[in-house]
Structure to design on (620 residues):
């Protein structure tokens, strides 16, 4: 069986999961891959990014990020080219900043009550800044790349419908990485949890705006109105949107951060990469649009299981 | 029965729901109210804010907002004063920006292909900016005030435990306004949905960090570790955190925006204000900490029903 060459945009292409994904797509599946990341690709990665690379700004500003990706794709993609898949694997983890258990450092000598009050004030403001910047960073690293990818790619996403191999229901595919932890409350990692729960909501919302969604009658009606509003939205008719929710991915950084955990409980990047590749090749095997799919290692230890959670 | 005077911080005190709430708390329940808003209070409102007012910056920066509220409270609240309740009713609604159904304006005459390409590029960047700024505004107006209120108030929130009237289990109360719509996908109002789903997650997370949460054993253990980490966190032992999820609140702005809707299906601000007042007075009537409570008008049309959704 011959496939036409497919094109994928991978946002987060220089990360651990991203590098594994572009290797699998480019080398094993002969997909033309466009990369995007805040970190430039290594020369090894560059050889896999046959579609080019967009260097993203390291920013917590959503407009800045979205405009940079939009601009980069505009420069890389010709008018008649299409994206078959957009996969956002950018992300990072941070816990809440530890609240200081002590009052302001006692080596700052306050001469009087007014000084004392001012020392306390600056210390309170410092703590407030630290807390909020943690939330901002988590939104910036986990949620905003997904929103930027979803927005910037819409002008290029394939409408599908061509006869492609044995499966002609080949609309575009959008994949983002969520987190099993964010399916419920996340004490101790508020910013991370907020960014992932919002990512899940994006997957569900874009997914249920698609013509492939299985949802309520009123949502289907609303989604149809949105799709019909603009001719630029026809890619939504056959788009599949899926969130992959790992617990922990087995990466060098995670092993270093949690050396005493049982690594066999962690999901290998290649298992996620292969599943995404499968969804690109065999659209019939995709979960329904808007679904959140948990992944964990299978019991035999030679792969991973993907199960729809929501 | 006599109550000691309670103190409440109301973030969003100049909005429609906020004004109704400060009137009810201050006039009917004799609560000492501290207001906070981007809009200065009217002289009528000012007379109800016997605890003072913090003017917030109109910003989409979470650190800026959190620091401003932290600083304002530091200046207003004496060391031995306590907050009995923090209620965040700030918020706004916007739908997605309509995607232009037309290519760039044809009155821009492009001299050649390069100009043409540049016109298209600037137009794409404009659309990207509009889309992202909508998301930023919704996070800034709906989510960030909740996060800022939760953070800034922690230094002052009562630990409870005193004998107060007929109910001595009187820990602090934190209330935020969510949205029934954000319990599922929100096509057509992505930014709003993201901001509200994240608000729900904050309520669940802060709520389940409290000693009053009904949750899993592992979450209780984790939450206990967080509470014990710092002496500043002891208010969490008895804190109740509740999200109120309306469909539509009956406000002049909403009547103007949706003149053809059935207003009797909308919730009156006073019914929300009264329920919050009840939770302040009778802690035993509070929903469990971390819960999301839907509100809609009752069938008799003379009040509202509050039902735990999650």
């Amino acid at each position: 069986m011959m496939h036409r060459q497919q094109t994928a945009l991978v946002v987060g292409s220089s990360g651990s999961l991203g590098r594994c994904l572009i290797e699998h797509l480019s080398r094993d599946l002969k997909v033309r891959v466009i990369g995007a990341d805040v970190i430039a690709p290594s020369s090894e990665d560059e050889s896999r990014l046959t579609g080019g690379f967009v260097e993203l700004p390291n920013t917590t500003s959503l407009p800045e990020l979205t405009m940079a990706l939009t601009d980069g794709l505009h420069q890389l993609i010709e008018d008649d080219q299409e994206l078959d898949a957009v996969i956002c694997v950018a992300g990072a983890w941070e816990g809440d900043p530890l609240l200081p258990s002590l009052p302001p450092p006692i080596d700052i000598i306050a001469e009087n009550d007014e000084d004392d009050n001012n020392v306390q004030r600056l210390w309170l403001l410092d703590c407030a800044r630290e807390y909020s910047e943690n939330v901002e960073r988590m939104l910036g690293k986990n949620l905003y790349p997904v929103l930027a990818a979803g927005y910037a790619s819409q002008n290029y996403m394939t409408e599908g419908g061509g006869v492609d191999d044995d499966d002609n229901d080949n609309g575009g595919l959008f994949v983002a990485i969520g987190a099993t932890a964010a399916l419920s409350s996340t004490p101790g990692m508020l910013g991370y949890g907020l960014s992932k729960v919002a990512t899940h909501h994006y997957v569900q919302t874009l997914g249920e705006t698609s013509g492939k969604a299985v949802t309520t009658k009123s949502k289907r009606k609303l989604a149809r109105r949105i799709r019909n509003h603009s001719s630029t939205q026809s890619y939504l008719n056959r788009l599949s949107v899926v969130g992959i929710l790992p617990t922990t991915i087995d990466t060098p950084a995670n092993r270093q951060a949690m050396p005493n955990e049982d690594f066999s409980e962690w999901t290998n990047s290649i298992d996620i990469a292969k599943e995404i590749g499968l969804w690109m090749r065999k659209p019939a095997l995709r979960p329904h649009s808007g679904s959140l799919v948990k992944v964990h290692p299978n019991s035999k230890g030679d792969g991973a299981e993907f199960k729809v959670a929501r």
Summary: The radius of gyration of chain A is 22 Å.
